[in-house]
Known about the structure:
With 543 residues, the chain is an alpha+beta fold. 46% of the residues lie in helices and 15% in strands. The chain has a five-stranded mixed beta sheet with strand order 2-7-6-5-4, with helices on both faces. A five-stranded antiparallel beta sheet has the order 9-8-12-11-10, with helices on both faces. Strands 14-15-13-16-17 form a five-stranded mixed beta sheet, with helices on both faces. The longest helix has 20 residues, at 280-299. The model is unreliable at 1-10, 133-145, 191-195 and 328-336 (pLDDT under 50).
Amino acid sequence: MDSVAAAPPPTRGISLRQLLMALGEPLVELQAAPAGLDVEIRSVALLDPEDPPLARPGELILAIGARGRAAFPALRAGGRDGAAAVAVKLDAPAQAAALSETAVEAGIALLTVRSEARWEHVDALARAALEDVPQGPPGETPEEGDLFALAQTTAVLTGGIVSIEDTANRVLAYSRSSDSDEVDDLRRLSILGWQGPEAYLTRLRKWGVFQRLRASDEVIRIDSHPEMGIRRRLAVAIRSGERQLGTIWVQEGSVPLTERSEQALLGAARVAAQHLVRRRRELSADLTLTRTLSAGLLEGNTGPQPLATHLGLDVGRPAAVLGFTYGAEEASGPELTRAEVANLISVHTAARHRSALLAQVDHRIYVLLPQLPRSIDTGTLRGWGEEITDAARRHLGIALRGSVGCIVPRLDDVPESRREADRILDAMVRVGVATTVAALPDIQAEVLVSELLALLSARPDMRDPRLTAVVAHDSRNQGQLAESILTYLNSFGDVRAAAAELHVHPNTLRYRIRRAEQLTGLDLSRPDQRLLAMLQLRLPPAR
């Protein structure tokens, strides 16, 4: 009797979400996912342009020779045959929109591969991801560094001493305390034993604290008990939906808790939930994917659908972007890091808006605010930004600048809000603005002047060589002709007012103006030359 070969067991696949976590930036970008991010990928196939466009269910098709529009047949065939996704390289970024539209029509996910990436590298990584699905053991906790950083940020914002615990009252992370006298017996015993002492836990159960934490998202106040060596506390549940994942406790130290400590604690609980909701490796990869999709949307490289699918967002609701920047020279302490600033911003915005997302692009930190209430206005968002910059000044000792991008009607329009936020930040850096947080209507003139200066800076051919000669003369002779002209023009030709600002005699200023005109041939009696001088002399000196 002939032997019959046993059919191979069905391949255990991974989701598109897991594949993106394994590959992700900078190798591939998700352009479309019409069936969501949980579609299963069970195998990888290389498709050459000379091969017939065929696919198998659950395949990731690597269209190795079909660039740009030449990948249309692979997309249509993949959708027809039940493939999970197609990966393709682009000849030009503009091709992404047409390919995405075809992918959505075909019902198949589309990935674009960086042009410099080697197909064999993508193939090897994808197959490795199929062979090694991240599996963390049950009950595994998040990366300590994430929770300890969050605990420290929460301590800074509340003015208290923070512990983060799981539902079994095991301490997962805690904040640093500079004064051991501030730490009460409960805090000390909890950290040393990594669990709250049973006697006090029994009291908390008797007072109904744990019952209230299970039933409510609100901050719970617990009075001090000197006879037990216990100081005043606040507590809030860390929740994912109806499920409690843990608790954040804030003990009052030698000074009272801050005025907004309860609001900060609510935000911290929402941020902590992101760290506790999944196992360690899944969490880390999921957060990375969220940040990658958020950054891609802000930069206009990825449409809104992948992020909306990943997080369950409503693309038809209003959205806006807050932008923040600060200079490294403004850091006032050795422990100040970008992560601390990001944590401060994330805690504050999460307290105000549950769906707030943080993304860092280049040297700026952005807060993406999806599915905003339709009644919200720019003034409200400016107020949120001012709370953040005020907290950064008080708690971290830095001058954080913030901008409010326009409120756009849909998630698709987020890049427009980000561009407006950037225009405002650019103006704050380039021309100097007194306010720390602004929307475009607040500083419209400053933004336009800033952009004119940027144009002059990039186009030397558009500058008046006579004004360039004035600046060069000052540089050679340590002179002040350019500064004197600009101050004179800013004072509308009022010599006495300009001289007072420069701390010189009016005759000295008159001499400097005449000297500049004689040296270069300028005629500041002409309106067009005055206008150009007011702009060009604002350019920063060449380095």
